[in-house]
Amino acid sequence: MKRIVYAWPSAEKVFVEKLEEVTRFIHEKFSKPVPILWTKEAEAKHNAQNNCYACSVEFKSDKKDFKYRKVRDHCHYTGKYRGALHSLCNLKLKDRKSIPVL
What we know:
alpha+beta, 2 domains
């Protein structure tokens, strides 16, 4: 978005209108998760990993202990594969649902 400069007396009104416009844009752009971009390179990287990239603990294949099984982590905004994680670690690394405003 381009920079906009307004002077008094309408500055606060224009600011709120533009803020609402940006909010709608962000919501439309990022409200739906993007599917994982699964490539041959991503698959090779995933298969080669034996430890969780978040906590460095080895994966477990025990079906009873699903928290430590190997899962695919990816960015829900870009779809880019990030690496193999434990199921539990993946849940702890959720993408932000808010945007800080200063």
